[in-house]
Amino acid sequence: MEKEIHYKNISNIEATHKATHEPYEYTKHEITPREDFSQCYVAVYHIPPLKSNYPMHSHENNTEVFYIQNGSLLHTKRERIGRNTYRLSESRNRGFYHLSPGKRERT
Length: 107
Hints:
Order of helices and strands: EEEEEEEE
Strand content: 35-45%
Radius of gyration: 16 Å
């Protein structure tokens, strides 16, 4: 079975802007639309300073991966997800961050 390699240039992907209420606002480019890719969903979010794309949440079955290109990841609460406790604080480091699946419990 021959596999197809997909290439997408973000400048050619239609963007979706959402700003329904404070402090949430983002512009999203779907790299792998959900209807076409069932196991791997990739989207690029452009989030303005002091905004967030979604409230803190977790996924029981999916790992979330974030790449911070510019700016910071800020979260000051401790979160317990499954057997792991995470404390996210301000980070100005460019790089990948990932959160393993599990049920979120506040601590």
